[in-house]
């Protein structure tokens, strides 16, 4: 289960109101995209949900339990970082297994989970390689594998494809939405790319200056943008 609700979540850095107050409802199993221009607070909002940053005020409910004072580990969400966050000296197997080893899981359990994730991500033949000997797309899949083995309530992606070249990015989009269809786990995906948002999302959250401008299905946003900002950003004809 991965239902997430934000109630009047605020974040200030010093005296700057980066997130003045966000209310948001994410249903279990949804693929939600946070989209907005650079600096609008997408990463901050994701980090607040993950628990990597403390809220200034507000509630973050995961499956109806307020988690604002809980550690990232307790929240049960997995953040997928860009592929460069892999450990270069470790094999693919050990990169995927790392979090489980740290958590002290038995070897046989780790082995089953790593091989299962590798199977889903087409990495079975690459488990003994190091990240330097992989393509960009394969590295990104290893980063996703690290998240899968933890069986999270939700996956949180922060611009995971921005390091990849354009053609690879299109493939990886399909892989991530395919993974969502297979796992049916809640995913929150942050991007500044409107095309990514429109093609991947069940539900888009458009942000500007830390505020939610509109929430809706891609076609609804396109057909009925709430204001000029959304219309301009989504590329709607209005
Ligand atoms: P986005 O991911 O949409 O590009 P961010 O969430 O990274 O935006 O940043 C939103 C705003 O918050 C920016 O103005 C940024 O400079 C500011 N900000 C982010 N993190 C910090 C921090 N740790 N300290 C001070 N300001 C920050
Ligand atoms: Mg960001």
Layout of helices and strands, plus pairs?
Blueprint: E1 4-13, E2 16-26, E3 31-35, H1 42-50, E4 57-62, E5 65-66, H2 72-75, E6 77-80, H3 92-102, H4 107-120, H5 136-148, E7 154-158, H6 166-183, E8 186-191, H7 194-200, E9 203-208, E10 211-216, H8 218-223, H9 228-234
Parallel strand pairs: 3-8, 3-9, 6-7, 7-8
Antiparallel strand pairs: 1-2, 1-4, 4-5, 9-10
This protein binds adenosine-5'-diphosphate and magnesium ion.
How would you classify the helix and strand content by structural class?
Answer: alpha/beta
Q: Report on the biggest sheet.
A: 6 strands, mixed
- End-to-end Cα distance: 38 Å
Shape: globular
Mean pLDDT: 95
The proportion of residues in beta strands is 25-35%
Would you write up a description of this structure?
- It is globular and about 50 Å long.
- It has helices spanning 42-50, 72-75, 92-102, 107-120, 136-148, 166-183, 194-200, 218-223, 228-234; strands at 4-13, 16-26, 31-35, 57-62, 65-66, 77-80, 154-158, 186-191, 203-208, 211-216.
- The strands form two sheets. The protein has a six-stranded mixed sheet, with helices on both faces. It has a four-stranded antiparallel sheet with strand order 2-1-4-5, with helices on one face.
- It contains nine helices and ten strands.
- By secondary structure, the protein is of the alpha/beta class.
- Strand 9 (203-208) and strand 10 (211-216) form a beta hairpin.
- Bound molecules: adenosine-5'-diphosphate and magnesium ion.
- Adenosine-5'-diphosphate binds at residues 13, 18, 36, 38-44.
- Residues 13, 18, 36, 38-44 line the site of adenosine-5'-diphosphate.
- Residues 4-234 form the ABC transporter domain.
- It comes from Thalassospira mesophila.
């Amino acid at each position: 289960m991965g239902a997430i609700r934000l109630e009047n979540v605020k974040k200030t850095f010093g005296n700057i109101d980066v997130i003045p107050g966000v209310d948001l409802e994410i249903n279990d199993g949804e693929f939600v995209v946070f989209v907005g221009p650079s600096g609008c607070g997408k990463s901050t909002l994701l980090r607040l949900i993950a628990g990597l940053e403390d809220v200034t005020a507000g509630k973050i409910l995961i499956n109806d339990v307020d988690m604002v004072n809980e550690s990232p580990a307790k929240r049960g969400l997995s953040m997928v970082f860009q592929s460069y966050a892999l450990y270069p000296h470790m094999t693919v197997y050990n990169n995927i297994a790392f979090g489980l080893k740290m958590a002290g899981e038995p070897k046989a359990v780790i082995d089953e989970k790593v091989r299962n994730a590798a199977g889903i991500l087409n990495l079975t033949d690459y488990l003994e390689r190091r990240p330097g000997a992989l393509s960009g797309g394969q590295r990104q899949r290893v980063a996703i594998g690290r998240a899968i083995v933890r069986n999270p309530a939700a996956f949180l992606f922060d611009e995971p494809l921005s390091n990849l070249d354009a053609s690879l990015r299109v493939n990886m989009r399909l892989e991530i939405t395919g993974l969502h269809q297979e796992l049916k786990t809640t995913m929150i995906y942050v991007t500044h790319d409107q095309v990514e948002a429109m093609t991947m999302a069940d539900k888009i959250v458009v942000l500007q200056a830390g505020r939610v401008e509109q929430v809706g299905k891609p076609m609804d946003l396109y057909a009925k943008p709430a204001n000029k900002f959304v219309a301009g950003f989504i590329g709607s004809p209005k």
